Amino acid sequence: MVETKLKGEDGLIIVHVENQSSVQSSFPERMFVYFSRLFEKYRIRIVPIAVFSHDALRDEPSVFSIEFPFGEVLQFRFFPVELRKKHWRDSIRHDNPIAAALLGKMGYTESEKVELKKEFLRMLVRLELDEARQRLLLGFFETYVKLSEEEEQQLQREVKAMETKEKENVLGLIISYEQKGRKEGLEEGMERGIQQGMKQLIRNMERKGMTVEDIARLVDLLEEDVRGLLEE
């Protein structure tokens, strides 16, 4: 929810944006309830917008009405934004974090995946975000657009063949996150290995007749943690 002004007007308005990630028949009613509560509280004009981010290609209703055989009592409308019906190419020209975040939920074909990720990375470079925001947007994008190893290699080849000023920065972005991924994977593997070794050691101690209290003191763990490892 954002409080803002319309261009050329003095009065404030509220822009209420609601994300809907699944198909729900009662959603229009929910939008009306939210609208009513906001209006009751603030008593100013409200722009209700629904962003449909699910994968179903359907015509989402944008009206909630109450009527009787003798007449209509209410007709409430909101503005629907159906991401799957928006093609990613129409949004790639808009360099802003919101467009970047939603790119992976827009319409694309399997054959466009590599190009989609390449253009997403170019946008990420142009946005000049800090590393934390870059990782957040990249993680969100890769949740929905997953490339195979072969497609990742194709992506690198296409980036290397680019003749734009973003080329080196995009390559650097790919290499940087690949290295981070390998490092995190290695650290995770080492952590799992250490935990497995600790479990084995504790079980061996128990088999030799040592009490949980003695084991906890020797391996510098809480007694509850030792019991948990023995029960796994």
UniProtKB/TrEMBL annotation:
It comes from the Bacteria. InterPro entries: TF_fork_head_CS_2. GO terms for molecular function: DNA-binding transcription factor activity; sequence-specific DNA binding. PANTHER family: SLL1691 PROTEIN. This is Transposase (putative) YhgA-like domain-containing protein. It comes from Geobacillus kaustophilus (strain HTA426).
